[in-house]
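Dear Dr. V.,

Thank you for agreeing to look over these. As mentioned in my earlier message, I'm a first-year student in the group and I'm still getting used to reading structure tokens, so any feedback on how I've presented them would be very welcome. I ran two proteins. I've put each sequence directly above its structure. The first is here:
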Amino acid sequence: MANLTKYQTATCIAIFFHIIGLVGILVFKSQLIIQSTPFNLLLSGALLVWTQKDKNNYYYLFVIIIAVAGFAVEVIGVNTSLLFGNYSYGKVLGFKFKNVPLLISLNWFIIIYCCGITVHTLLTSVIDKVAAQSKTPPLIIKAISIITDGATLAVLFDWLMEPVAIKLGFWQWKGNGAIPVYNYICWIVISLLLLIIFHVLPFNKQNKFAINLLLIQFMFFLLLRTFL
């Protein structure tokens, strides 16, 4: 990988381990692969931080806020059912505090960061053209687009992931086991709030690997949802 860029190296690593995960789960039904999910989360998070350009204090502040906020809403959800619905976590995601795996905070960071970066990158040139034609300040259009489209993308990712996560024992919904619509309502509201923080904090929002990782994970969960 000597001639590869940092983004390409990280993408190759992510593809390699997600392929191992797919084969292990779909072909060999390996519990070892399923139980290694925390490693995959830690690796993905580390690669995202590694590939982030010009890391400043606002970037680290963003990581901390998203991780803490993501963990906090899960604690409220699991212990009170006021958010998301009536659900509980299994043992796959590792050590729990207040009935919530600590690694779920990292999962929130990965989803919000990747969705924010992806929408920011894809829409920037389009937004500038629309702003010029409509004579609307581009910052206003950009803020609305990144926050709302990013939140929509995050909810779509959760919708794709939910059935797979249940089958693999990450978490389960109580009652009849159905995924409540309220879960997705909470997801979009919370994602909107977290993406406001993403947009407002001044750190570099260009990371090709974040886009690649989101696509890799979309394909990973799509294939699992289809064939598992």
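The second protein is here, in the same arrangement:
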Amino acid sequence: MAMQVLVTRPVLQAREWVERLTLAGVPAQSLPLIGIEAVLDPEPLREAWRQLPSMRLALFVSPNAATHFFALQPAGGGWPDGVLAASPGPGTTETLRRLGVPTNQIVEPAPDAPQFDSEALWVQLAREAWQGAAVLVVRGTSGRDWLADQLREAGATVERVAAYRRAAPRLDAACAALLQAALARPREHLWFFSSSEAIDHLEGLAPQADWAVAAALATHPRIAARARALGMGAVHEARPTVEAVVACIQSIAS
């Protein structure tokens, strides 16, 4: 029996990955382990849109940051000329393009970057002069500040706005049943992690689970380290592209 890949991204991204993996011939199901919710007070986002034309750069930390920010885009307004949009990876870039940001105004890691993350994005951004530049960081209510710190040290004035809230997952009946099936038959499932937070939530959902025979695929060394700390017996790593993930899964299956 082929292993079922459990995609643990937030629901919208999980759905997209399931579709892509299925098209590639990989059995996959969505089991979102991170909840994404709107912020309670949208006014800071509206103010960020008003200030956007004066910014040199708007940095979006994830597809969810872009989606929730654009949900409050003023009617009839497009992306301002001369304002760059920074993306840490292909998923965020694709979302920004779909939402109307011109491709020539998007800055992202090189296609052959070892990882798609803040460090890879900084390699591109560090080529520019940031002294006196105004930068907006669009993120969740919590998250890494490393890239914002690099921009600030380079002389930029950095403002942050929370576009969404991360939350523990609320599993519906189908997802709860899928979780129980994965716990009962670990050799038939492969956990696909793109966030250490998803692993934290999984541990909370199944605190007594024995992960010794479970297998995981992680898209970053930090995430892989968290999966190993949970006790997962086999942890594989792949770049967060469909091609790399599919190749890794096929290698595991063989």
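From my reading of the second output: The mean pLDDT is 94. The longest strand covers residues 157-167. Does that match how you would interpret it?

Kind regards,
E.
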